[in-house]
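batch job 7 of whatever, protein = VWA domain-containing protein
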Amino acid sequence: MDEFDVLWIILIVILSLGLTWFQYQNQFKGQFKRAFIFAFPRFLAYLCLGILLLNPQIKQTTYFTEKPNLVIGLDNSMSIAQLIDTASYKSNLLKWINDKEIADGFNIQRYQFGENYATFERLNFIDKQSNISGFIRQMSNIYRSNNSHIVLFTDGQQTLGQDYLYTTKSSQQNLIPVVVGDTTNYTDLKIDRINANRYAFLNNQFPIEVFLSSNTEKEVNTEFVLKRQNKVIARKSVSFSEDIKAQNFKIYLKANQFGVNTITAELKPVNEKNTQNNIQQFAVEVIDERTKILLLYNTLHPDLGLLKKSIESNQQHQVKLQNISDLNEDLATFNLVIFYQPEANFQEIFKTVQSQNLSYIVIGGTQTDYSVLNRSQPYFKKTLSRATEDYYPKLNPSYSSYQVEDIGFANFPPLKNTFGDIEMTSESDILLIQNINGISTQQPLLMTVSENNQKSAFLFGENIWRWRMYSFIDQGDFKAFDRFIDQLVQFVSSQTTKSRLVTDVESFYNQGENSNISVQYFDKNYNFDPDQKINLQVTNTTSQEKYSYTFVLKNQNYKTKINDLPAGEYNYKINVEKQNISESGQFTVIDFVLEQQFYRANVEKLQQLSDTLFYANQLDKLKTYLTTQQKFKPLQKSLEKKESLIEWWMLFILIIVFLGIEWFSRKYHGLI
């Protein structure tokens, strides 16, 4: 309680005495003793009331010792098992983790990580991917205090996520790497990377870009071979020396076999300890046709380049940009026509598209002549206006034409379009809803139409290039957005009818990847049905071994993982229980696990993380370092709290008691 509160209490005492004297001064002049019996409880009641209003407080300071957080991260990826004696390593590690002296000095938090992280249970080294940067980022967010330290047990070999050297720059925590695995530089030739297009066209030549490296100090001659179905389809002699540590070249193959072509790349080993990284498999799907798309415009806009780049990210699509004033094309040769901001001179082309029953997409904006567009299609009428508005997207969870992944639409920047209502004049399926300043209008921003064997889509807004840029910032690449555009193009250009079971199955998967299959199921009215049980049956075409999976509902999709499938070719069947609806097909799992390509710990990179580095056989030194360095010592902190001198409810009771005493006294003496 400070001096200011003391002065207020003195003033309250004086005011309580003065107020009591003023009310009882006549009684004091006549019968002082009896008046004192009435006045004293009144004075105490006033005093309590004043203290209640003042609420004086006292300061209390408590001292406590705060132990630093010690976050222990254990790499559980497959590469660890290749580099160490796992039994001895786990025995020594568990003994160190449970050390009493370390536990007394720190708040221990134990985690294991591979592709994702989890609280430590047991190390089995079966994770097929390692995301070191993801683990560091998550721990930095969870333990934001400067009094937190991360001890990272890893081989430094990362197969997923951002480079962890960049991640640590933004981390406030002290990071102590512990190198796990052999650091000896054995002679090693390896396939670093193979770049190949996902698709090739039948009877065309397609390139295979090969990156090889060696750590040898002497001259080595070997051979690089490509095989398909155990038959050599290409070979190249390769030489390494002290001056030539890497080789990069292209090999051109002919796409003469329709379907998924699994190709094995092999670099012949030369007295190497690790030969896993000398073999790598990849796949190329050979297709016999390409979707031709005509993109018509009247005014140049950044959206045009974005659309061409995004659509052609799928090599099955070919886009031709064409100014409407220079159009001299036979529209029948195209699978899809895209009208970008149509104006008055588009009207005749619309008639041709409608008469030939061609699929088309319309993208409107501030330059669009909606009077022409209103007359050229039968699906909607838009109010004409010169004013413009920003429209934010909102995903419609009831969209049923095909399976759509939410790629973060709610956070996308707005599209610009002329202001006005859209009156629907025909049945359509709304994919994205207009959102203005956080208010959903329930009007379409993007919709698709399937009617009379003709499909079309309408996007009511320009500046879609901003969506692709935001997607890159959010995701780190363009893949999610390009997949969204690709799905829209494939749906509109496809002649297939709407299906109640919509599946997303790739032609091939890498064994080391996190592989998912997702489906959507719709009822007879084409509303998403979240209450069905959907199963996946997978059969290996060679061994006839069968695998069964059950789809789990997640975010308007049924999903399941197929990570446990060994390499091989498979037939699959997706079946909806109690419904006569199913879909079947084939896919290939390629024998490629990146975690098995490493032969030593990446000690050079781990040394860049911190000035202090330990090895897995130096756990005693690590313990000494943690228990003796001043920066790891517990901190004594003080906590100052202000508490009320008297609780309000006690004062309230006292006021009632004192006023009650006064009232009964006056009643007893016949004054009431």
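notes: The CA atoms of residues 203 and 256 lie 5 Å apart.
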